[in-house]
Every structure is written in C-alpha cells, then in structure tokens.
What we know:
The complex is a heterodimer of chains A (323) and B (337). Chain A has 323 residues and is an alpha/beta fold. Chain A is built from ten helices and twelve strands.
Amino acid sequence: MAEQPVLEVSDLRVSYYTDAGRATALDGVHLVLNQGEKLGLVGESGSGKSTMALAMMRMIKPPGRIESGRVIVHGIDLTALSDEEMRKARLSVIAYIPQGAMNSLNPVTRVGAQLVDAIVAHEPASKRGEIEERCRRALESVDLKRGVFEMYAHELSGGMKQRVCIAIDILLKPRVIIADEPTSALDVVTQRQVMETINRVQKQIGAAVILIGHDMGLMAQFVDKVAVMYAGRLVELCAVREMFTRPLHPYASALIRSLPSLSNKGVFQGIPGLAPSLLRLPGGCSFHPRCPHAMDVCRTSQPPLETLPDGRQVACHLYPHKA
Amino acid sequence: MADLLNLRSVTKVYSRGLISRTSTVALNDVSLTLKENEPTILTVAGESGSGKTTLAMLLLGFLSPSSGQILYKGKDINRLKGEERMTFRREVQAVFQDPFAVFNPFYTVDHLLSVPIRRFHLARSRADVRDRMVEALTAVGLHPDDVLGRFPHQLSGGQRQRINVARALVLKPRLLVADEPVSMVDASLRASILETLRALKQDHGVSILYITHDLTTAYHISRSIIVLYRGSVMEAGDTDTVITNPQHPYTRLLIDSIPWPDVDRRWGQTEIKAQESEAEGAGHASGCKFYSRCPFAMEKCRVTPPLFRLSERQAASCYLHDTHPALPAERLSELLP
C-alpha cells in the first residue's frame, strides 16, 4: 500500500450561530490519513467529533456554517464541488455511518430497495439485475444472508440493521468511511461482531476509516491512530499504543487514567471539572481550568498543534516544539 | 425477617396474539435474596433481550410476575396497600439509562427534587426542604449552587445522571435499582457516577441492583454478579471469580468480547455464532437457552441444565460442569457474598 494520503483535512473551521452568540465547534483542524488507515476520534460530548464528520461530508446545516478549510479525498477537493457533485461524491468517495444509523432504515420499504436506491442514485445507467446482484453480494460481505434483501427493517435485530447500514456504505467502494459511534446502542457481543465486520470490509475495499466515539476500549481494539479532541481542537494525535502507554497531553492522560481495567479494581479517577461551553471558551488553552499542570502561559496563549521529533502531534505548552 | 428483598421462583412471560398465542419467557425461575442489614451491590448482566430490564420492572412493581412472588421486607409487593405501599415506593428507588429522556424540560432541578420530599412529607419547612436537597446533591458530588435553579437543558449528561441519583437519595431509599446508569454518559464521567453509587452503599447503607451489559464497570463496582441469557441464569457468583475465571460458555463469550482499553489485551478469538432471530430462538422452548450458539452444545443440552456449584462462590448452568453438585435454583443467593 502506497503511503499516499487519501484524506487531507486542513484548517477546517465550523461555527454555529446561535441566539447566545457564535459557538466555534471546530477550530482549525488539520488531519492526514493514509489509505487503509484506521483513525479513532475521541473526546467528550460537545468536543466537536460529530461536527467534524458532518463538515467532512458537507452536511452542516444552518445555524452551522463551514467558515474555512479544505477536505481533499483522493485528490478531489470536496469543498470546491458544486452541491450536485458533492451529492455524487457522498457514498462513492466518502461514506458516513451516522450515530444510530440502524434507526435510519425506512420501515415501510424492503431492505433491498434501500440498497438499490443507493446505486441507482449514482449509476442510473446500470442494469437492474446487475444492481440487485451487487446488493446481495454486499449483504453477504457483511455476514447477512442474501434473503435479508427481501426483509423489512423490523424483522432484523439491532446488530443486523447496523450491518445493513454498513453494506449500504460499502456498495460504491468509498475511499473514506466515517463511522460515528456505530455500536453505541449494541451490547458487547454484537458490538464485537459489527466491529469485526467493519474491519474486514474496510480491508477488502482498502478504504480509510475514521471511528468516532468515546469508548477507549473500542479504540484500543480497532484503530491504528488516535486523535483526541477537546473544545473543537485536536489536542493530541499519535499511534494507539503510544496513546495508551504514554499519553502526552494532560487531557489525554486524564482520559486514559479514568479507564477501568482488570488490574486497578475499584479505582475510579474521573476528570475533575466540566467541559467548557463553546460560547464562553476560557482564554489561552481551553483545558487550563481543569489542567493539573496549568502554567501562566496556558492562561494567555493557545498552544498550537506541533509535531514532536518522534512524529507525534500534541498541542500543549508542556512540550516545547522542536521538530 | 432479615431479608430486604426476596424473589421466590419469579417467572415473567409476555404473551401476544388473541387466537394463536405466542409467548416469550422474559425471566425464568429466578430466586434471589438481599439481606436487610448487609448493603451490597449486585450486578445483573446480560445482552439485550436477556431479561435484565424485566427484572428491574418487576422489582419496582411496574409489572407483576406470571408466577412466583417478590417479597419486600416479607410482604408481597403486588399486594401492598396504603401506608405500606407508600413506604415501599419511598424505599425502593430507580435510576434509568437515559439522563436526557427522564426530565421534564419545563421544571427546574429544585422542582424535581422537592416534589418527592413534599409528596412523602419528609420536611417540615421550606428551609428543611432546601437542606435536604443540598445534602443529597452534595452526596452525589455536585455543588448545589451549580445546579439548583437550573433547567435540565443547562446541565450536562453526567450532571443530569447524578441529579437522578440525588433524587433517589433524598428519599433515603434502602434499595436502588440502577438500570444501565452509565451507558449513555461519557467515559470520563462514568468514573464519577460509579464512585457516587459506591459511596451510597458505603456511607448510606443503600443496596444497589446494578443492571448492565458492561462487565467492565460491573467488575469494578459490584461484589456479586448474576449473568442472564434469555431470561435464565447462566452463571452466578462472586464478581471477581466470575469475571476472572468464567466457566459458562456464554459468560466466556461475553468476557471475551469486552473491548478492554488495553492494546496488549486483544479481543479474543472465540468464534461467535450470530444470534438467531427471535422467532427461531423461541422454538427451543426446552433445554439450555444458549444451545443454538454454544460451541460445546451436546445432545443432553436439550434438557435444561441445573446450576452446578463449582465452588463456594460460583455456579454455572452448564453440563460441562456436571461433575459438580447441582444447586437448586431457589438457593442461588448462597453464592452471592
């Protein structure tokens, strides 16, 4: 696999214009992803994870607005496309599995018709029989029986519905798949099955995957790299092993410490304080009011995301930048 | 009577259809005792459809069992009347899964907390009401000034869930039924809510029935555990033993599927057989409920296995362990410390 980036996000900014003022949900995010790579995007509720996914899909709705930034997938600048071109690009270039996707299936049409729709919308010239065959194969590739094609959503369990959504997402072999908490409503066994399915089809079609969530356990099992978001900014990005063994940013390390494991029974270490309101972000580093290592400089100046000599990226004044 | 709660062979069957009745056994012959003077945290674990929530609804008196009895302090909860019923309603409290769905958006936190206080005549004056609210909020680790007077939408998920616990706490309950209390909140807040629950048990002597599919948190918070699958008890015992040394193939599968936040502990290699659709599963009315998915399924598994007692504090309902003595279902509580 060539080390050529399949996804490049640069300086992506999204604001929501609310009655109470402008909330910057995404504040200049840069991200590069290679082909076949799996990236985990973690952070508290309201840290901008889902906004990031929506912005990449160009699905931000008013009062939200993409202020600036470019999203380049496989050489195509999504931000420069017309609305019609973007509609074509969705699913064929970049696919999105939204939160609670399994509840998005239409209850009154058969599952098959919904898969067929996806192809017809992009390739109106294809033959009907051919399309149906592709859909059935897609269902098989996510471990569903071909017969599911004729079934209705209510006849399927949560895990099966979620796999139907994955099947829709891989129909057109997109380059990038964004999965927003794909398993949050499923129990552990089904969760594992669904994640294994995503893992396998991702390898088959060679797509890059962005997994959004706050379950660090899932991240440890699934992704190659982890990006931690806090108040709309990327604060750390590194390989999953480094994240779990030696997190650098104080927020990341508090997050790792708060995780339960088999070895530290009975020790609960939450992160003190609350996530800041995006309308009233503290000056300087957004994390400084909760940070145990806060220094004077943290109150006045916002640390940029810097690349350290070992290739990790971190935005914190504790790590003076010398790349 | 030293028993706070006593379930005697409780079974719950849901039936539907007028002409051709189909029925689903949601809970099958569960017996359980919680002692009055030994507060404990007991986990009921299982995947969706295992009957965990049915059990919670039965305990709270929202459903009545199809057969068997639920006794609270020696009295059948479905026959309580008048004052006894009020006492039961006050002493058995619940915290539910979704902290975003349980609040009325038109009322402030004060209203939410003061209604139960007034309803049960627990305070003599306004100042007393406020003292009680402040006391309960402090006990769950919230600053009263941060939350009193606020509306639910002004609070985070973690704050809301702790207010739910506080709401239960103002009534000085003896038993708290917590149905997936942390599955909807951020990982960083889970720790503080679990800590709150544990403090409740230690400082206020409240017994907690912790219902979850998340064995990681169960391991950290509870002393004993019951693993349910399609309404039947698969394995039960001391939490440490069951989680570090699971003996039932279903428990093994569950534990093998936990995504541990540890890069050196990979998801296990145990093959998972997809869960058959509900209709198919209902066909196996007799025999081990796990039969169709079990990698070790044998001919004799078509007859329901009893619980085999593996040690002082562990039993599994599986013929793989049939060399051990069988434990009658009504003596399940002997396993639970």
